[in-house]
Sequence to fold (669 residues):
Amino acid sequence: MFEKILIANRGEIAIRIIQSCKRMDIRTVAVYSEADSRSLHVLEADEAVLLGGAKSEESYLVKEKIIDAALKHNCQAIHPGYGFLSENPEFAEMVSLAGLVFIGPPASAIATLGDKIASKAMAIRTGLPIVPGHTGVLSDIEEILAIAEQIGYPILLKPVAGGGGKGMRIVTKKEELGYALEACKGETRKAFGDDKIFVERYIAHPRHVEIQIIADYYGNIIHLGERECSIQRRYQKIIEETPSMAVDDSLRQKMGKMACDLAREAGYSSVGTVEFILDTEQNFYFLEMNTRLQVEHPVTEMITSLDLVELQLLIAAGEPIPIRQEEVSMKGWAIEARICAEDPSRGFMPTTGMVTRYFAPRGKHIRVDSGIKAGSLVNIYYDPMLAKVAAWGETREDSRKLLVSALNGYHIEGIITNVHFTNAILNHPAFIRGELHTDFIEEHFEDGQMKIAPPQERLHYMALAVTLVYHNRQNLVRDSLKPMVAQVGGIPDSKTLNHYMVRGENDIFELRLEGVQTSRTWTIWVNKNQYQVITPEFAFYQRRLKLKINDESHRFHLQYHGNFIWAAYCGITRTFEIYSPREWKLAKYMPRSKKMVLDNILRSPMPGLVVDIKVKKGERVYRGQELIIIEAMKMESGVASPCDGEVQDVMACIGQAVETGDTLLTFRL
Ligand code: ADP
Ligand code: ADP
Ligand code: MG
Fold:
């Protein structure tokens, strides 16, 4: 076995590979760019080499530098991960010529299979069904029109180089072709450096089902069953599972055998994946073969108890596959969600920023492959995928529920991610029923939101969670203020409340709390429904809350903005406004603001005493600047400006006792 290898990648996959290496006593060398000098993969590896600038072209894609680093650091092999150089035959070749082992298939197999036309030709030779279309490069619009007439609309224009769903365009009628062709070619040129495209029939509402294979240098080839990856946005997967509800034993055997046949024909070794689409009549068609480890490999590992990276390493080191096809056992069900820095409400646009708080879920049968920690910077240079969360269960429903609870407990602050979006998918009734197809998101979601309303009970849970926290928080602060109030006097309304009005979007809930803060056991009425609730020990600022409601544990994410509390649970996100019945009389006539805070008002985020005012009327202020100091809980806290602007008026005065939500000053924007 190798003593030391270089990992030519970054993020969660670099860390994933390091983990297997550690178990196998293989030392690791990480590579990194200037933007990644403090990244997790650099810390986890035994050694690390700086490659160059932040841009991939200056670092992770510079073949010579990577090979040079491997040689200088006495590595025997290079693992390319996925993305970057993993499917670059020239790189694989260069690695071998340098006397190193490329942990992946032979360069020739990468070259053939990476070309969608060549691989389709090979698939035909091997007897795999392919999507009807044309197996040659096309550029002429007349030629495409003629082919479209033959195969019938809708058609799909696809890049020959292909990958990551880039460049593909659907054409539903001939009038659309001109524009779609230009768009497809433009994107293809940008992504792959050429504009070679081909045409296939577009299969309506298909499922994406793929077969994981393993091959060694001695002609042994086995498959590890299928993964279903039908939940996609922009032709890119975000939720994957195995097995697939659409695949029975006989179909699995048929697809598995064909995948192995193709790998044999290609002279394949290492792990690889043969992708198919499955139409509504159980016909399947070959799409492409990915000649690398795949993002979604964890679900296969969870049901087979195999380590695919370990297998890659063994095979690359010249060992035969240690198990036979008959010995592969698949147990239970596993589902994975990809966590990406992207905004589902804005067309899945990538987001950037710093991870300010990070807490990953833990637990039996929960797996988190992550490349980030608190303090990590997410920038524009690399893939937006940050982590993957996978859960295993005896049944699909067990694994789904466990993944939902894991996502409820996955806390990433500072950047916008798709955590709640993926959770919403997992909670959609159609997903639960297993009615999956590649247009699932388009059909069931709009602007990142489910098209159907969430179940009332879930909203009740959320309303009671935010109210409990608000209630305890108010009481904690009041208690701490007692000595001060005795001196200064005049904190308004200091008697304990147990009756609240809560507004969350279009719903209004009336809550009654019975219980005492110290006992942690409550009876809570939400409208006419009664719930028994056990709370944890309350902290003043509880961002992650675990409640036992009617004997079942539930996790919530919370963010406080005075009496506005944002909560997330099972993919539902809401800002709740909490009022005492007296405040409610006034509040309910107020126009509901879309935003949590009105931009031109600075409100007190907590009850307390104003001890300092740092600005005057007419002064210019900047977002984040501390404007007013409030004392509460024996601590002074600054209230920062939410915006850039000018102080229009100062309402608060030093020595004044204020309640949550009181206006401290106003801005002119
Ligand atoms: P699959 O999921 O079938 O492996 P995808 O194309 O959806 O295929 O995912 C692989 C892609 O994921 C790569 O081509 C790359 O763009 C992207 N990717 C995600 N995370 C990383 C990473 N850490 N390093 C490099 N590429 C990554
Ligand atoms: P990439 O190399 O970008 O991964 P693929 O050929 O694997 O390209 O296709 C990616 C996705 O695009 C598939 O999972 C599927 O959702 C969709 N797709 C590809 N070809 C077709 C087709 N002929 N009909 C319908 N959907 C398709
Ligand atoms: Mg693909």
The CA atoms of residues 606 and 660 lie 4 Å apart. Confidence is low (pLDDT under 50) at residues 593-597.
